[in-house]
């Protein structure tokens, strides 16, 4: 089979399934893993997919431009986002606040329904609005063109009206004292308000942000909170989190092979 024909098959598979692993493609196309990885590299150059650890994900036209243009950070965001999505069950009511990891969760939520999603992010609301069996509620407020999200006094007041099972938030800093922080005052205020109305806080944090606080604090991580990060997290930080009774999920094993059963 010629390369162009393999690319067509891979494209069609991703359009239907949204993700694929290398082993599945080698069996489907009867070629070596080296050939498949070369095909995925070419399709990534064409901005059709993003390669992951052991496979690839379809790039969404609404999501891709807003993820970091650095390939490693894009993969990291997607991995953390997809790991976070595994904590969501049909029937949940969730809050997704503006941030690259929450944005990366959107594609993985397609198969989870019914679902009620509250958000302040326009891109998240638009994309999830195209999914079946999902109720999407966009908070009111002043639009930040930089983030394409709403903040301000109206957003804070609106947030008081809602209660969610799970709240997902991307943070920019996690200090040695477990203080949580972000780079925006408006976002810090919204997170602080939202914590009053959620049963479970799920913190999405790149490993590089541990022990490096950002400018605006919104509180501390508490026993029972959940943290999702990437495989670059140090053993010393992992030990600190375990000792504090914080639930920790790491993306290290997410795309290492096909799922069976």
Automatic annotation (TrEMBL):
Stored SMART domains: DeoRC, HTH_DEOR
Leader peptide range in chain numbering: none
InterPro entries documented for this protein: Carb_Metab_HTH_regulators, DeoR-like_C, DeoR_HTH, NagB/RpiA_transferase-like, Tscrpt_reg_HTH_DeoR_CS, WH-like_DNA-bd_sf, WH_DNA-bd_sf
Pfam family, one: HTH_DeoR
Keyword Nucleus: no
Domain of life: Bacteria
Key words, A-Z: DNA-binding, Transcription, Transcription regulation
Record carries keyword Transcription regulation: yes
Residue ranges of every copy of the HTH deoR-type domain listed in the record: 3-58
GO terms, molecular function: DNA binding; DNA-binding transcription factor activity
Protein name: DeoR/GlpR transcriptional regulator
């Amino acid at each position: 089979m010629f390369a162009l024909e393999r690319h067509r098959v891979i494209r069609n598979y991703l359009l239907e399934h949204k993700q694929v692993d290398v082993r599945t493609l080698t069996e489907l196309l009867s070629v070596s893993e080296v050939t498949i990885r070369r095909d995925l590299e070419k399709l990534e150059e064409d901005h059709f997919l993003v390669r992951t650890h052991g496979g690839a994900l379809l790039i969404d036209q609404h999501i891709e431009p807003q993820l970091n243009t650095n390939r490693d950070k894009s993969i990291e965001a997607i991995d953390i986002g997809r790991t976070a999505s595994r904590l969501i069950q049909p029937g949940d009511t969730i809050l997704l606040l503006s941030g690259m990891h929450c944005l990366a969760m959107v594609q993985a939520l397609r198969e989870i329904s019914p679902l009620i999603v509250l958000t302040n992010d326009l891109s998240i609301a638009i994309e999830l609005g195209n999914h079946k069996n999902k109720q999407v509620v966009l908070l009111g407020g002043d639009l930040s063109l930089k983030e394409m999200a709403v903040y301000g006094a109206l957003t804070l007041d609106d947030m008081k009206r809602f209660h969610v099972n799970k709240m997902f938030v991307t943070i920019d800093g996690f200090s040695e004292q477990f203080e949580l922080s972000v780079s925006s005052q408006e976002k810090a205020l919204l997170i602080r308000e939202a914590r009053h109305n959620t049963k479970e806080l799920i913190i999405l944090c790149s490993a590089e942000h541990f022990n490096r606080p950002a400018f605006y604090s919104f509180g501390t991580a508490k026993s029972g909170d959940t943290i999702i990060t990437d495989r670059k997290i140090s053993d010393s930080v992992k030990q600190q989190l375990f000792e504090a009774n914080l639930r920790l999920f790491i993306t290290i094993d997410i795309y290492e092979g096909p799922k069976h059963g």
